[in-house]
């Protein structure tokens, strides 16, 4: 297993380099002037010499390839640079906002697993009944509905009395109080719960016809004991794979969710940085997100052996 882990970590290096290059090219080609964003209203009154000094201070007067090598070398040393606009190290921006994004992602994942896994199991056990059709219809709606639309509907019906019930705050972080986290977590986890429900149902039905399940039932074990102890354990590998892949969806969905609910996470930082063409923040936060995605997928691969001991790493 150690050789497998080392090989995967070695493959992560060119992956992250490719991500860095794509992000740098896209941020360089984006329309807008970062010098104008840094100077604000004073840009219009500033003389060309002042604008040139700001441009030189930020290193934007160098050719694109010089800027690329400078960013790449600095990132390789673990230095993500300073924000053009916030005038603080990018690692401090990530250090402040990532725990809040992680908190939101954990809430979304909790909702997704708590709703999707039981729904998939029940749908498989009640195949072709009205329960199965209802759960799969809801799952289809959950998969098809965009996150921003879910967020708008949730705010319309669950935050005020005019169209629904005022159960949750409209937006904000609220100092980390749990009540502020519930609605964004529900919105973020709904799409993933629908995917998990559909995958769980398919995998449970596939495993149900295996000989060892028939043998377990022939021994006189109760139906739910067979399902939970034998069928579910062997059906979990594709479900775990989907959960690992959907970590990327949770990070992408958090951008929309944090913006709609005014949540102070990395997603809002990325949106604000793109609006201001704050290249160090864009590069740092997206590269950090890519690193998290690669790490989570490696951990998911390693859990396969725990779920199914027949899996070996070579």
Task: Report on this structure.
Belongs to the binding-protein-dependent transport system permease family. Residues 98-304 form the ABC transmembrane type-1 domain. Keywords: Cell membrane, Membrane, Transmembrane, Transmembrane helix, Transport. The chain crosses the membrane at residues 9-30, 102-123, 135-158, 178-199, 235-261, 281-307. The protein is flat. The protein has 13 helices and no strands. It is 77% helix and 0% strand. The longest helix is centred in the C-terminal third of the chain and has 38 residues, at 223-260. Helix 6 (90-125) runs antiparallel to helix 7 (130-144). The protein has helices at residues 2-29, 34-39, 42-45, 48-58, 64-76, 90-125, 130-144, 147-158, 178-208, 211-218, 223-260, 266-276, 279-307. With 314 residues, it is mostly helical.
Task: Briefly say what this structure is.
The protein is mainly alpha-helical and about 325 residues long.
Number of DSSP helical runs? 13
Distance between the ends? 7 Å
Residue fraction in strands: under 5%
Q: What are the low-pLDDT stretches, counting only 5+ consecutive residues below 50?
A: none
Radius of gyration in whole Å, from Cα?
A: 24 Å
Mean pLDDT: 84
The rough form would be described as: flat
| Major β-sheet annotation | none
Protein structure class: mainly alpha
């Amino acid at each position: 297993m150690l050789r497998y882990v080392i090989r995967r970590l070695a493959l992560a290096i060119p992956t992250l380099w490719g991500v860095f290059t794509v992000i740098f090219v896209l941020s360089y080609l984006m329309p807008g002037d970062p010098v104008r964003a840094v100077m604000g209203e004073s840009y219009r009154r500033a003389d060309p010499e002042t604008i040139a000094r700001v441009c030189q201070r930020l290193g934007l007067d160098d050719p694109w390839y010089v800027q690329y090598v400078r960013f790449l070398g600095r990132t390789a040393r673990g230095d993500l640079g300073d924000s053009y606009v916030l005038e603080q190290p990018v690692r401090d921006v990530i250090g402040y906002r990532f725990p809040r994004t992680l908190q939101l992602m954990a809430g979304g994942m909790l909702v997704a697993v708590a709703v999707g896994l039981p729904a998939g199991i029940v749908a498989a056990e009640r195949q072709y009944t009205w329960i199965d059709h209802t759960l799969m219809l809801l799952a289809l709606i959950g998969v098809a509905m965009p996150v921003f639309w879910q967020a708008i509907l949730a705010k319309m019906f669950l935050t005020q009395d005019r169209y629904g019930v005022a159960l949750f705050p409209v937006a904000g972080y609220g100092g980390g109080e749990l009540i502020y986290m519930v609605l964004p977590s529900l919105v973020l986890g709904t799409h993933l719960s629908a995917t998990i429900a559909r995958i769980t149902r398919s995998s449970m039905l596939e495993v149900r016809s295996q000989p060892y399940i028939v043998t377990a039932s022939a021994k006189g074990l109760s139906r739910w004991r067979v399902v939970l102890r034998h069928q579910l354990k062997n059906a979990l590998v594709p479900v775990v794979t989907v959960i690992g892949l959907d970590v990327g969806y949770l990070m992408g969905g958090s951008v929309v969710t944090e913006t709609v609910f005014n949540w102070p996470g990395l997603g809002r930082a990325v949106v604000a940085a793109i609006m201001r063409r704050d290249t160090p923040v864009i590069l740092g936060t997206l590269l950090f997100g890519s690193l998290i995605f690669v790490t989570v997928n490696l951990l998911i691969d390693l859990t396969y052996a725990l779920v199914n001991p027949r899996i070996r790493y070579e």
